[in-house]
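Reminder to self: tokens first, then the designed residues, so the page reads top to bottom the way the pipeline ran.
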């Protein structure tokens, strides 16, 4: 086994994480805050944790990290109840412990020559976008200009409100934002087909296309796209990025058993310079170049 296959060893920690807070939102959505200091220090946008859900659930569940506070030693996780495992997790209370393995995976890698970053999150693909936005906003010397677009067909897991930040190129009437991002000075806009007030009526990828279409050639040369969400959304996002000639990184969602590269149960077909290859989403990803996963001919 080569060094690249072993590169994740020594950076994944097993911790008994204390539940500090557990908020519950409409449509079976939850935000879990865990005290996991080792994970918080090492986490990067796009990485995830593998959690035990309850004493009666033998298999762990992989969940994306939405925020990580290194100084205070906590991480936030946004998840939606799907299946009996996460249903059990949703009943856990502050003060209880859950076993956490993490952070796992290769995250997003913004490039300094493309500081106009477009972050696209759909449904439970929203958390990595929040994490990436926070990291970029905190890098004051980097000169990053993130824009976060979020899509959901169920109520968003936060109280949306009109944004205080003007975003040229966004269609009229699309003014709803995530207040947390607005507070960081990061513009965000919401998209849905459910008719929620202030949201763009359509898919989040259509909103991304509308914004990209408003940019000059010089501005497009500064753009890089980052996306996480359901596979159809990621494929559409890759197509939009290809249409406008901008690079795109996608974070894939796959069922996982071990989540640390041992079982190879989460492999996906990826195009490499050496030809097609099967890569493990857990440790080779979950972030990949969009063109390697969703090539133009696919």
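Designed residues (298 positions):
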């Amino acid at each position: 086994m080569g060094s690249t296959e072993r590169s994740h060893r020594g950076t994944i920690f097993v911790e008994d994480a204390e539940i500090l807070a557990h908020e519950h939102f409409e449509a079976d959505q939850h935000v879990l805050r865990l005290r996991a200091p080792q994970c918080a220090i090492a986490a990067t946008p796009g990485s995830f944790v593998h959690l035990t859900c309850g004493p009666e659930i033998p298999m762990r569940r992989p969940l994306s990290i939405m925020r990580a506070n290194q100084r205070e030693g906590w991480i936030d996780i946004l998840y939606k109840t799907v299946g009996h495992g996460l249903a059990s997790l949703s009943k856990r209370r502050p003060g209880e412990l859950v076993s956490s393995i993490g952070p796992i995976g290769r995250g997003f890698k913004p490039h300094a020559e493309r500081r106009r970053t477009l972050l696209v999150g759909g449904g439970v693909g929203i958390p990595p976008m929040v994490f990436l936005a926070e990291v970029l906003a905190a890098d004051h010397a980097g000169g990053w200009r993130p824009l976060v677009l979020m899509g959901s067909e169920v109520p968003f897991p936060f109280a949306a409100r009109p944004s205080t930040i003007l975003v040229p190129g966004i269609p009229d009437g699309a003014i709803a934002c995530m207040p947390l991002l607005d507070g960081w000075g990061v513009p965000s806009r919401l998209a849905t087909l459910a008719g929620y007030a202030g949201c763009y009526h359509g898919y989040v990828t259509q909103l991304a296309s509308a914004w990209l279409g408003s940019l000059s050639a010089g501005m497009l040369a500064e753009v890089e796209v980052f996306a996480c969400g359901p596979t159809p959304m990621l494929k559409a996002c890759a197509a939009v990025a290809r249409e406008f000639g901008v690079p795109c990184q996608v974070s894939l969602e796959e069922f996982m058993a071990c989540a640390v590269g041992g079982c190879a149960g989460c492999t996906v077909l990826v195009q490499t310079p050496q030809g097609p290859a099967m890569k493990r989403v857990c440790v080779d990803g979950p972030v990949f170049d969009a063109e390697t996963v969703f090539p133009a001919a696919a």
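The CA atoms of residues 119 and 129 lie 6 Å apart.
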